[in-house]
Amino acid sequence: MSNQKYSTDDKLKCLRLFLPLRNPNTPDKKKIDILNAISGVTKIFLDLVEKKEEILFSVLKTLRHLLQSENSIVRALSIRVLRRCCNARIIIEHLEKLNIHFLIVRILEQQKYNKLGCVETFKLIYQIIHSDPDLMPRSFVQSIVAISEHEDDPLRVTAIMTLAELSLFNTHLSAICGGILTICKAIIDPSHSQIQEFLVRVLLNLINSPKTKQYVSTNELNIILSPFMSVFEKSISKKKFLTCIASKRAIIYMCRDWGGLIFFARNPNGLKGILHTLKLPSRKINMLTIETLYSLFFLKMPLNDGEQIEINYNIPNLERTNSQSSYHHIWGDLDLILPLEQSPHHNLLDNYVAILLVAFMDVGLFQSLVDVGKVGSKKLSFYIANLLGELLHRSNRILPSRLFSSLQSLPSLFEIAASFSDSPFIRVRASRMLSELDKFARKKKSKISLDFHVYLLLSNINHQKSVKVKRGFKSNELPINVNQTLKIKHDKSIADQEFESRMKESKVISTEDYLKWNFKTISHLLNGPLNNIKYLDISIKNKFMKNYLNFLDPNSGQFCNISKTQKNLIYIGISVQLIGVLLNHSVGCNFLKNSSFIRSIHLALRMENEGTSTNNSGMKRLFTPTKISKTLTKEYFTLIGNMTNYKSGLDILLKSGILKSLQKTVETKGRGDLALPIIISLDYNLTTITRRFLSKVLHFGTKLIRLQATEHLKFLWRAGVNDFSDWAIKMLVWQLRDKDVTVAGAALDLLDECCTRSPKCLETLVSCRPEDLSKFGIKGKNLLITLLSMPKGFDHLKEIKYIDQKLIYWEKKGIIDYVKDLDHYLTSIYSYKKHNYNDNIKIPLPPHFFAELVKTEKGANILLERKLIPKWINFLSKIKFLKNASLEINNNLNDLGGDEIDTEIVKKEMKNKIENEVKIGGSDNVKNQENEINKGTGKVKRKGKGERKGGINKNEKEKEKEKEKETESKKRRKGVKNGKERAKKKDEFLFNSLKIRAIIWTIGSIASSKLGYKILKKYNPVKIISNFALNSNQMSVRGTCIYVMGLLSEIDEIRKKLNKYGWEYPTEKGHMIAIPTFENRAKFFSYNQDQYLGSYPKNLKQTINIDYSTLNTEKNNLIKNLKDIGNTINEDSSMKNLLELKSNHPELFLDPHLFYISYKMLEYYKFRFSIRKFFHFLFRDIFLTEKNLDNLHKDLFIDKKNETNNINIKNNQIGFDLSDLFENKSQNENMQNNAKKIENVTNNKTIQQKYSFERLKQLPLPDGVNPKNLIHFLKEDDFDRVLSCSKQDFLTLPKWSQMHKLKECGLL
């Protein structure tokens, strides 16, 4: 409700807008203008209703009257006005009291006639959901459910989304109307693939909460599995197969949530049912199940040909200008080329996969795969064999040794392959599977074949270290064989004659045509004899070196015009070897320094920088974009980069001016095709010269160059360049100031990667005293938190007052936000997406503030001074696990500090009632009442200031009652506040769950360090967390405990306790995984399904009391057929009977009471949408007056639900005079006027009155006469006179004939 105050004139103007709407002579166009105007002043109306409740009834009745207008726009705008007024709880309450909801449902389900009205109705429903969902009319929900199940309805998706949202806010109402069942059916509908994940998330939300899981039955969840289970034929239709695909996606979504996984694990039709589908006769279903298993375990499907997808890197395209991806090096994905070593962060994906794998193992995954693989098709056996190999590979890495030892040998498969008792077909298939497993194992052991340029870079980086290349490569795939060390030693000492023979064999001396050269012999010479200074001197004198350098000289036009193909890479490799041989000796350095090759390269770079195409010597431009993309011209930078790997080579480049020319070339705009190979080819392992060059590029280069230079720093870091922490970290800190967000983000990513794996990098970062990193979002904040783990970082953050600020935040809500962010991150990763899965997928655990704080003694002392740990432990220790209840109760949640929580909703409601009923005389009074509630006595002693010996004074009692009425009316009127209070009540359980999980994460994170565990050791955190993991009724809490137990498994002292409490862990450290033992797994996967609270359709007698004795035969027959129409067996006959009744007795379908009965059926019974439309068709001619709508509850029946509200409706069903509201009239006069109005209403009869032809032709029409159906109000005597036939004969005429007669006489 708005706090703005409006003047009396504004309120009067607002009310006067409604007056023309009540006049039947007001044209529709004017009504539309008025309703549009009212939509803009609803705030004034709500402010007026807050003080004058009698106004509300008159206005709502006016809108109710407009909902029956013939104009569809008027009806739609009336709903819009209602929607904008539904902030107030009192207005939502009166939608049912005044029977407005029936009229709105009729508009919604007659979409053909009012599309705008349907849209406004859905907006109205959405408004009620978010204002006060507890007051949602049941008729609305039944209508939404019917639309959601109607395949051809254009509003079906909107209805499903609305129903899903309602299920979160009012689960009970959705469940009893069949909404949750409808959601389950919509999940496996192929046409709803775009909203499928949202629907699954809604369903999982209901399952995870003990408060709402009672409304979700096992049968409803089994609907998701049913498409798989119900295929028993070999061939399958396309529609059914698409449904199976939708079911597959839903299974993956559900299994990636702890609630869904636990449900499937304990459900006999869950994980076991998924494996059972492998044995079904349909090959399509078999393959779909295999795809499901691959996706569940984040594995990549192999190729159909039987070959695994290989890592393939083509020759790089240096013209690439894509600057969007900051995670890919120019040669490919760095995560595949140079994968990171084991991260110090906790990989949450390993915990999930381990639990999932164990759950499948418990239902016989491996044996089922073997059984199917030995009898399945060749294609199926291949996929199963690869899946077995992948799962065995992962099991060896993440499962405890006891669990893995039972799988390693696969005894049954070996037995089948070696046995001759089975059929040859089965034996051959088993042998083939073993062969595929052997191939898979060989591929896992084989090294990744690297791109030639990547190999050169790695060789240069490790050249000065005198060690082998860190990453494996296949030497036989490279054009240079550098591993034949013994042969090289032998070749150095060969005889002079043999050397001369090889020189002649190479043909380099005899001819300058490189096509005639023997490059294999040249390679042997470079690897052996030419490393001897004696033979090197000979090669220089006999023109061997001179001819080869002339081949490289751009002026010769040979090397620079060779096309860029994989075959021609041999020229680059041998050229790199030759320059390396020359630079290893002073003789070679002098020769190279004075060669024309160096001068030509310098000249070509100068021409490029000056922008000239030719020079005085006739040399043409070398580094054109065409040559760079199609020839080996760009490999000149590879040769220059190889020279920077030697001190002598750097001297040559400096003195010749090549390095300065390179710097100018890099700074040239629009030549990224030159800048990128220059940056990545230089060596940064030797001196500071190239590092300064890289620093200038990072500072002053173009956006693309800066980004690629930052990415190359990542390559250098992973390749192990010298002293990276001393010089590169400073560059990255500078890059954080970059104006471009992409460049700064790439620098931050690399800083995070380096500092979390290298203490030296973290020390350098602290010494740089970086600016506020929190402006970079979550990654920047996490990096700041990581600084807390070092004493220098702690001092730096303490100095800038970061710690003091964050302590306050983390105490109040930081630990809650940590869990929320983590949930959001996990949801985004676990979402089903079509990306390539592999072993490199990792979900690192973000750093926790308190975990990093306790890694230093100063931080640990601060945490102890705050005394937060005892509060957290006290909070968890008071949680009670109830086996057959829907809540975990904490009796003293306020001990935690921060936000106040109270999960005992019933107790809180009792408290509120007492506070409203009793005059609060002081704080002691309230405390006494609370104590008596807690004792459960139910007796409340009322003590207050007005208590006397003889009792409380009567005047004071009256004052108390008046105050109570005022407070109650204010609460009812302030619907927004009440709605927020109810939302808080609904969120209390969710908030309590977050608190539990947040504290478990906090305790586990603190205990994961040695210093932190010393602090927590006396509280035995392992026992507390294990207790929650096995006994909690909240599935999300169990999942959190799995992650946290894995986090604790790294501490040796904790490992011993894990065994004591029934937990296992991998022998090798670094995986941070803990799995419950077989006995504890039964508890972990237990799913306590409380009594199902969703109800089924009730008998009509249980919902409406009908006095059948007052009804005639036709009316009883009508009600009977309306009830039977929901039965598919009686549907046709019932429809036929109802149509006959409408033809023979049309007056029945104009009876307001029968209308009410039929719409009550729609409210309580579940009918298909087509049947509901048939209901509307039957009663389409009825026009309900105000008297009809106000008296629907009378005479024939009494609605139990509204029985107590009839008095309020009676007292307020007449309109009012606006002047009465603001003129100074006495209260007695107003009361007398109201009494007279009430008497007039009670004396009115609802019996339909007949009029003469002449009266019906006059305007205005009598009260209660529907202008659409004047013929039904015509006296029977006038039929023969006006229409020349009796009433019975007229009703038997065709409709077109009836319309013609009515037009002639003027009754249409």
TrEMBL record:
Q: Which InterPro entries match?
A: ARM-like, ARM-type_fold, Pianissimo_fam, Pianissimo_N, Rictor_IV, RICTOR_M, RICTOR_V, Villin_headpiece
Superkingdom, taxonomy of origin:
Eukaryota
Annotated TM spans: none
List every stretch annotated Disordered: 922-982
Bias-annotated ranges (Basic and acidic residues): 947-969
Q: Which residues form the HP domain?
A: 1245-1308
UniProt lists the family membership as follows: Belongs to the RICTOR family.
Q: What is this protein's record name?
A: Cytosolic regulator pianissimo
- Species in which this protein is naturally found: Anaeramoeba flamelloides
What lineage is on file? Eukaryota, Metamonada, Anaeramoebidae, Anaeramoeba
